[in-house]
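@channel anyone free to eyeball this complex?
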Amino acid sequence: MPFDLHRAYTLNPAVAIRPEPFGALVYHFGNRRLSFLKTRQLVAVVRLLESQASAAGALEAAGVSTRERARYAAALAALADSEVIDAR
Amino acid sequence: MRAEAVSARPALAGQFKRGLTAPICLTWELTYACNLQCVHCLSASGRRDPRELSTAECMRVVDELERMQVFYANIGGGEPTLRPDFWDLLDYSVAHHVGIKFSTNGVRLDKRAARRLAGTDYVDVQISIDGATADVNDAVRGAGSFAMARRAMEALAEAGFGEFKISIVVTRHNVSQLDMFKRIADAYGARLRVTRLRPSGRGADSWADLHPTAAQQRLLYDWLSARPDVLTGDSFFHLSALGAPLPGLNLCGAGRVVCLIDPVGDVYACPFVLHDEFKAGNVREPGGFTRLWRESEVLLRLREPAAAGACASCGLFDACQGGCMAAKFFTGLPLDGPDPECVLGHGERELARVCLPDRPRAGPGHSKGSRGSGDPVFLGQIAARAAT
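replying in thread with the prediction:
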């Protein structure tokens, strides 16, 4: 299913997040894929997905600027593609 | 590490150079015992060391790795499956959220073991061969080792393990077999992994005979560039100076994202530098592995910006980063100069000037019999070869 900014998402239960100075390392124990969250704000967005009604809401709640919105949406789409986050 | 997850991200590579809160690629060698005596063994393995970590000590290391969120460990040796507690450690580790990727020559991987592995999550298996035919393989790894590895591959395939890995160290004698290796892997539904020969351990004595020629390196670069699905463990970044960078971080990860725990608990900056100069300490010390990773002077020094040295004026330095620290160290080259296999040939010229008896030696190692890495006869042979 293609990523939809207006849907609700959550972190996949097989995924662990390790905070790092630049952002975080993300590991999916199921498919053994390692991904990188390249900014701390992206980490905040990912952590907020669970409590927000949509991915767009998580971007808003994390204070992602309008200018950065497209870049962050693309990052979320990539994370959905590698099953780090799932639609709920 | 899946190379594609980090490819072509220079900003991220800059972050990695300053080090992370824990390693990404942690190699943990469980024993120096080995049924084989490969001539290029990085850890000069053979005999078990009486000081090896006990089962309880290994479990404490796993507990630390879990707390540090080291998501998986690359287990090797020696031959790790020769440890009587190997399967218990594997289960303990997986239960504590530290996935296991282990390398084996296949000696204990019979049908029963294969079925057990097929039923365990978070475990990856990597079977090593260094020739696509018995003659080429056994010349490096010992008589019967090719047949043994093939039996283990059959067992895994038959048990429905899924995608295991077949791991090759590229040498002068097997580089012409790359397509054959790929066919073997494809036939089993396995993934091919190809890595670089290092002059470490017993490799210090066999490197001059085994390392690929300049023409073979070019061939290897072209072959790998055309096959991004072949894993390389990021080990050929010195070849990125030949054209477009190969997938991966393209930097030396030693002490930054890479680390090694040896069988007696000593921690080194990377699996290829088992030498006091790169030893951070021992996991048995207060603070354990965590403190060593975060505070040891050896590792902190490796996270400081490195000078390009003799390579500063080379336009390709950004591509190859000066190559592999271990390859330079054990061939006696300065660490801030070219890699011995520099694609422009600068390393080869430097090598001819090295006074061979002064090369750093890793000590006697754990080889069986008299073929230790300190054997002076080998020095003479390499000296003669390097001069030509």
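from a first look: Chain A has three helices and five strands.
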